[in-house]
């Protein structure tokens, strides 16, 4: 019963609200059609009816309706109030759901960038990355293996030669840094370059031996070594004291190695020429370069030639010179304006084949180098040979000064310009006006004197 009562009450409320809203809309329409009609009706009603009756008619009906609505709301239970509240919320939600009509503005169309398709999750997609990683791993493994292999070769060769060096030098394998004179230190310059420094021998300044191994730590170098077969090499340089060698420039060795080497050093490219080897009984692949023929037969005697023929595979070239000034200046290098210092050297380049751990072969080669060096120290030229070599050196010195004359002039002009520039800057920075004026006047006199023509004056008595 209560439920039906609540429903009837709810329906009546809806009807009342609809009736009120319809009446308000109807009144608004009438007001729009005749804005002043209400005033006319009120005046007519007021004229026919009395004041009391008019007031009763105006207020009686609305008061009855309002009293009924209040009584209905007072009789309603909380459940009815809750239902009406839910009903109001539904109406508000429907009103909110209605789209708000606004002016439609045409938005510019978005332009999407061309994006590649998503990479598929398989290994083939990353083939280039995999190749790069594999190459890096191979390069790293080759570097470790090659560096270790070069170190083993160097230390085995060093230990095989160390006993002989101890019998000839007071200081063997010095590192050149520490004060410890015990020596026996193999210096590692790079992964494929090692060197040994010895000193303390009569007539010798020092002995420097470089072990130049193949670049086994470099993958590209390893591939090149397999294509072009290159062997490891040892270059021993004995630097003699000043005056130990006479004026001699001599070199012999494998023709290919010799011609390539003579282009890189100054003394051979300046003084030496190819000499005949028909009477020397040297290996067919060997050649000789010398300044004069006088000391060729003295150096290459029968014992020397026999040893070279039996051990030709170990030697690349033998270079003896008292005018050694280093390598030829490459293009783009700084030009030397003064004569370089000369050294007396005996340089021997050897192949490192099977004598790495063979103390007997290493001792024979070292003994041969010492014998050849002592022979070169005892060599003395005749008067004719000495005069010829002196003439060659004077001509070479004159050629050097001619080639560097223009460069020296440029250097001198640069120094003069720098001096003038510094003097002018000093004048500008001077704060004392009087002193500045004197300096400027002295500079003007100097410039006028330098520009004036030079005239020789003759004094007569």
Descriptors for this entry?
55% helix, alpha+beta, 9 strands, single chain, flat, nine-stranded antiparallel sheet, 461 residues
CA-CA gap between termini: 166 Å
Strand content: 5-15%
- SSE succession: HHHHHEEEHEEHHEEHHEEHHH
- What are the segments in which pLDDT stays under 50 over at least 5 consecutive residues? 32-65
* Helix percent band: 40-55%
Strand order in space, largest sheet: 1-2-3-4-9-8-5-7-6
Cα gyration radius (Å) = 57 Å
Number of helices: 13
- Biggest sheet architecture: 9 strands, antiparallel
SS class? alpha+beta
Please provide the count of β strands: 9
Compact summary:
By secondary structure, the protein is of the alpha+beta class. The chain has helices at residues 2-33, 37-48, 51-75, 78-97, 127-168, 219-227, 255-262, 266-271, 296-299, 302-310, 359-378, 383-429, 433-451; strands at 187-190, 193-198, 204-212, 232-240, 249-254, 273-275, 286-290, 315-324, 343-352.
